[in-house]
Structure prediction request, 230 residues.
Amino acid sequence: MSTYEFFILLHLVLFVYWLGGDIGVFYSSKFVVNPNLSKESRLVAAKIMFNIDLVPRICMSLMLTVGGILSEFSGLIHPWWQTAAIILLGPFWLAMVLIIHFNEGKPIAHKLSSFDFWFRWILIAAILVSAGYSYSTGRLDPAPWIGLKLVIFAGLIFCGVMIRIALRPFIGAFRNLAVQGASDADNAAMIASLGRVRIFVIAIWVGILVEAYLGVVKPFSPEQLALLFS
Prediction:
């Protein structure tokens, strides 16, 4: 297996597990908010949801690094400092995701979660600026579809941030469920919170599928244009 084939395979694995894991999280969340289930059943469903959620988080954290490496094979040459940043981003983000997950409730997880929140906003801005600059200077001419994937990925990160914001009432109500059982107000808060995140969850699913389409079809690339006008 060549280096290119390895990263293509890894890219596909990240795509499959991100989308599949995200669907699993959303499906299991319905059992967490179901007031007709016992407290114990809802807590088990929450544990399943929480652990499955680690999978799409891992996939997102590695996707930019893998995609950035693959872009080199499509003719997009990065300066050395950008290559270094692309390679280091994945392990750094992944380590942060794992530390937060396995230290839930501890001070280090709380501090890293706050950092991670702003880190994602910085990533969104950096991706959009990079894509805009690369389009304006012609760096993306060999593979203009990569710029579209970058913009969509920034949108995926944005949706994730908005989900985190919309879930704040859910988290507070769930803590009440875990400690003393959920009241009618807690159940209503959790259901309403999930309702608010639905649009962002669906947007992530659509965005991931569009990303896959762009990676397969490579629209507006010189090769595609040559086929169209041949």
Q: What stands out?
A: DSSP finds eight helices and no strands in the chain.
